[in-house]
């Protein structure tokens, strides 16, 4: 009887089995989904969102590349190779800017004769200027590289390079011109350093996730870093990233105080940076966001301030040079730093002044310095975390 009962139940169960199993399976699946969502939400909460902001050419992507090299897998051989065409294009663009620049300066400058390229090099200049205007650049052969080198050594080109503030001369010019032979080798593979110097304007948004102490160490903070395009037409895309930002790494190229914007040649780059920083500081989304200000391109700044007075820039017009050499560099740097500090406090509403605000002196090309700087950023953010959790 029992067996009948059990048998019956069994048969009952077995008849109903598909239904029961479906139910349990569904419940299990739902629970699993729920568990995963909770897990992912927890993990997401643990990921700190960092935004790299700043005007065009301030060094955001260079910092981004350094982070990739320092805390991630770095560049694969394929990635390195993909930079060959970028570097060759940079070389062609640079020599064009310089050659066209000589003509512009020869027309407008009172001391125009020093900007006139020698007769022998004029033909090369015209040819290279023509190549530089094309969309598709030819291969950088040894022969062309030699011509570029010849033109680069022309006294007029050197004069133009030396007074480049008015022209759009890339910061990597010297490095590119000194490495032409290597770049034009048929077996050329870009090095990490070449990649850091290469200039590609960012369009859109790129992101990487990393932990400064290594992904497999549990206690390490996890960061998701976003790199955006800094030129004016790119900035409308920024807004989509403004929710839930732990910290902004704002890059300001302090060497650009005598330069004009690429996208608007009536505007001084430092003035643009000032307005941009002010706008970001006032954004309502960033009430609790930490600000890490990178005063970047210090390597160029320290050379420039000894030749071009800081007060050529309207924002720095009250600057008084004090000394010479290294002392003057420090004096100028402290002055610029103070201007940014003042701006921060002016542009932050009283209820926001307790946001974390730190200023770092950086040269994005210097890997050791970027590593050290990021460690400090990480420490600051971790400390802030503990304070907010009431643990400190
Ligand atoms: N000498 C020097 N060059 C730098 C430094 N930081 C960046 N550069 C160079 O400046 C150029 C522009 O840097 P990017 O990192 O592309 O600038 P960006 O802010 O990403 O520019 P957008 O993508 O247009 O917003 C590159 O050729 C870099 O190698 C620096 O600290 N010193
Ligand atoms: Mg970029």
TrEMBL record:
It is found in: Cell membrane. One of its GO terms (cellular component) is heterotrimeric G-protein complex. Mg(2+) binds at residues 61, 202. InterPro entries: Gprotein_alpha_su, GproteinA_insert, P-loop_NTPase, Plant_Gprotein_alpha. Its main location: membrane. Its cofactor is Mg(2+). GTP binds at residues 57-62, 171, 196-202, 227-231, 296-299, 364. It comes from the Eukaryota. The helical domain is required for self-activation. G proteins are composed of 3 units; alpha, beta and gamma. The alpha chain contains the guanine nucleotide binding site. This is Guanine nucleotide-binding protein alpha subunit. It comes from Dioscorea cayennensis subsp. rotundata. The gene is LOC120252836.
């Amino acid at each position: 009887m029992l067996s009948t009962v059990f048998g019956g139940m069994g048969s009952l169960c077995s008849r109903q089995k598909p239904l029961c199993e479906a139910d349990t399976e569904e419940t299990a699946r739902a629970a699993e989904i729920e568990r995963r969502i909770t897990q992912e939400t927890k993990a997401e909460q643990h990921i700190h969102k960092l935004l790299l902001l700043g005007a065009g050419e301030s060094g955001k992507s260079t910092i981004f590349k350094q982070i990739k090299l320092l805390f991630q897998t770095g560049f694969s051989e394929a990635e390195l190779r993909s930079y060959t065409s970028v570097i060759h294009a940079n070389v062609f663009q640079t020599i064009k800017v310089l050659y066209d620049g000589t003509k512009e300066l020869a027309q407008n400058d009172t001391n125009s004769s020093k900007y006139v390229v020698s007769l022998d090099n004029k033909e090369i200049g015209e040819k290279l200027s023509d190549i530089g205007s094309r969309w598709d650049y030819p291969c950088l052969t040894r022969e062309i590289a030699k011509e570029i080198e010849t033109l680069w050594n022309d006294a007029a080109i050197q004069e133009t390079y030396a007074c480049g503030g008015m022209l759009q001369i890339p910061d990597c010019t010297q490095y590119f011109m000194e490495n032409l032979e290597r770049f034009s080798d048929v077996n050329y593979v870009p090095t990490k350093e070449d990649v850091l110097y290469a200039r590609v304007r960012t369009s859109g948004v790129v992101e990487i996730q990393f932990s400064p102490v290594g992904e497999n160490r549990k206690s390490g903070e996890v960061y998701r870093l976003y790199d955006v395009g800094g030129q004016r037409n790119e900035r409308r895309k920024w807004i989509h990233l403004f929710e839930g930002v732990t910290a902004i790494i704002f890059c300001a190229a302090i060497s650009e105080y005598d330069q004009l914007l690429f996208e608007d040649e009536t505007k001084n780059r430092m003035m643009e940076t000032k307005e941009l920083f002010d706008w970001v500081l006032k954004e309502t989304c960033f009430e609790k966001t930490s600000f890490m200000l990178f005063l970047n391109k210090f390597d160029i700044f320290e050379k420039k301030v000894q030749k071009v007075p800081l007060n050529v820039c309207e924002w720095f017009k009250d600057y008084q040079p004090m000394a010479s050499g290294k002392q003057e560099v420090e004096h100028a740097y402290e002055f610029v730093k103070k201007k940014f500090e003042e701006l921060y406090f002016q542009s932050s509403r009283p209820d926001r002044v307790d946001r974390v605000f730190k200023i770092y002196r950086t040269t994005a090309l210097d890997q050791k310095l970027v590593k050290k700087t990021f460690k400090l950023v990480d420490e600051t953010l971790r400390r802030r975390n503990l304070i907010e959790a009431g643990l400190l």
